[in-house]
Recover the amino acids of this structure.
C-alpha cells in the first residue's frame, strides 16, 4: 500500500473510475493483510484451524509470499476494470496476511515475552522504511517500463518474501494452540456476558486504558492510510512536481523510522502510557497536517512530512509495545486480535473517505 500513491492518478484515468474506488482498493489490500494475519492466528475460526493445523509455517510463508507478488503482477498485466483491481489487490493483501502468520508465530515460539514485546515495538521501523523507499522504487520502475511493466516487475521483486518462508525451519510447534478458557483472573460469579460469550471484547471493559488506546489507534490508522495513499497527490495539489511529491513519502518514511525507535527510550524509563502513546501523538500529528495544508514551500512541507512520519512512527511503535503492559496475561491474545482488527477496519476507511472528497478531475 505504501507505494500505491505513486500510481493513484494513473489508475483512475486508465480505468475511468473514481478516486474513491481506487483508493479503497489500495487500502483494502493492507486491511486484508492485517485482518488475515492477526485475526486468524489468535481466534478460533474454521479457516485459521485449517491453515495452521494442515500447513506448516514454512508452507504458509511460501504461499503468502507468492500471492503477495502475484497480486501486483496481475494488477499490472491483467487489470482492465475496477473489479479486476479489487481482486488482484485483495489477492496481494491476503498473501501478505498469510506471510505474517508464520513470521509472528515462529518468532514468538523462539523468544521470551519481554523480547517479543520489544520486537513488536520495533517492527514499525521497517514499515516506515518501506514508506521511504518503495514509492521511489515503484516510480522509477514505472518511468522506465511503463505502468504495466513497472507493476509486474515490482510484483516479481515482492516474490523475495518467499525466501522468508523457505528460511523457516520446520518445528514441532507449527500448529495453532487455542486457549478457550474464561477470564482466569475474575471469580466465576463476577463474570459478565462478555467474558462468557464474547471474550474477545472483554479486554475493552476489563482494561479501560486499553480501550482508550484502541480509540486513538483507530483514528491513527485512518490518518496513516490516507496519508500514505494521498501524500503524492497532496504534493501535486500544492504545485510540486511528481518527483518532489514522491520525496514527501521518502521524508515521511524516514521520520517514521526514526520515530519508531523513540518509544524504546520511554519504555526504559517507564514513561509510556495510553496518553503518551496515543493522545499526545494524535494531537501533534493533527496539528502538523493542518499546518501543512497552508504551506507552499517545498522544503518546509518536506520537513513537516518528516515530523508527521516521526509522530506516527512513535505512536505505532508505542501501541505495539504498550499492549502487553496494559493487559493481563489472559487478555493479551484477545487484545492483540482487537488491536489489529481495529487497524484492518480503519485502514480501508483511509482510502474510501478521503477519496470521496478528492476532485474527479484535476484542472
Amino acid at each position: 500500500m505504501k507505494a500505491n500513491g505513486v500510481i493513484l492518478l494513473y489508475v483512475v484515468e486508465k480505468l475511468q473510475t473514481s478516486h474513491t474506488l481506487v483508493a479503497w482498493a489500495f487500502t483494502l489490500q493492507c486491511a486484508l493483510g492485517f485482518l488475515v494475519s492477526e485475526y486468524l492466528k489468535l481466534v478460533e475460526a474454521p479457516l485459521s484451524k485449517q491453515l495452521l493445523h494442515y500447513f506448516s509455517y514454512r508452507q504458509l510463508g511460501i504461499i503468502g509470499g507468492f500471492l503477495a507478488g502475484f497480486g501486483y503482477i496481475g494488477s499490472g498485466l491483467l487489470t482492465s476494470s475496477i473489479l479486476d483491481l479489487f481482486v488482484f489487490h485483495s489477492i496481494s493483501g491476503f498473501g501478505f496476511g498469510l506471510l505474517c502468520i508464520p513470521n509472528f508465530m515462529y518468532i514468538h515460539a523462539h523468544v521470551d515475552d519481554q523480547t517479543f514485546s520489544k520486537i513488536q515495538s520495533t517492527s514499525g521501523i521497517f514499515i516506515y522504511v518501506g514508506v521511504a523507499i518503495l514509492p521511489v522504487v515503484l516510480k522509477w520502475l514505472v518511468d522506465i517500463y511503463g505502468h504495466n511493466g513497472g507493476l509486474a516487475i515490482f510484483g516479481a521483486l515482492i516474490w523475495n518474501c518467499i525466501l522468508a518462508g523457505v528460511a523457516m525451519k520446520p518445528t514441532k510447534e507449527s500448529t495453532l494452540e487455542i486457549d478457550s478458557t474464561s477470564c482466569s483472573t475474575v471469580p466465576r460469579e463476577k463474570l459478565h456476558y462478555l467474558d462468557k460469550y464474547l471474550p474477545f471484547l472483554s479486554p475493552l471493559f476489563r482494561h479501560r486504558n486499553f480501550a482508550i488506546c484502541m480509540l486513538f489507534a483507530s483514528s491513527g490508522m485512518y490518518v496513516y492510510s490516507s496519508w500514505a495513499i494521498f501524500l503524492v497527490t497532496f504534493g501535486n495539489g500544492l504545485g510540486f512536481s511528481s518527483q518532489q511529491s514522491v520525496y514527501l513519502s521518502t521524508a515521511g518514511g524516514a521520520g517514521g523510522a526514526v520515530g519508531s525507535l523513540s518509544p524504546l527510550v520511554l519504555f526504559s524509563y517507564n514513561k509510556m502510557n495510553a496518553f503518551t502513546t496515543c493522545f499526545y501523538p494524535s494531537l501533534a500529528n493533527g496539528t502538523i497536517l493542518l499546518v501543512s495544508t497552508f504551506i507552499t514551500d517545498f522544503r518546509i512541507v518536506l520537513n513537516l512530512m518528516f515530523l508527521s512520519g516521526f509522530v506516527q512512527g512513535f505512536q505505532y511503535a508505542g501501541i505495539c509495545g504498550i499492549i502487553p503492559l496494559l493487559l493481563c496475561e489472559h487478555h493479551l491474545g484477545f487484545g492483540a486480535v482487537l488491536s489489529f482488527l481495529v487497524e484492518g477496519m480503519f485502514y480501508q476507511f483511509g482510502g474510501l473517505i478521503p477519496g470521496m472528497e478528492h476532485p474527479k478531475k484535476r484542472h
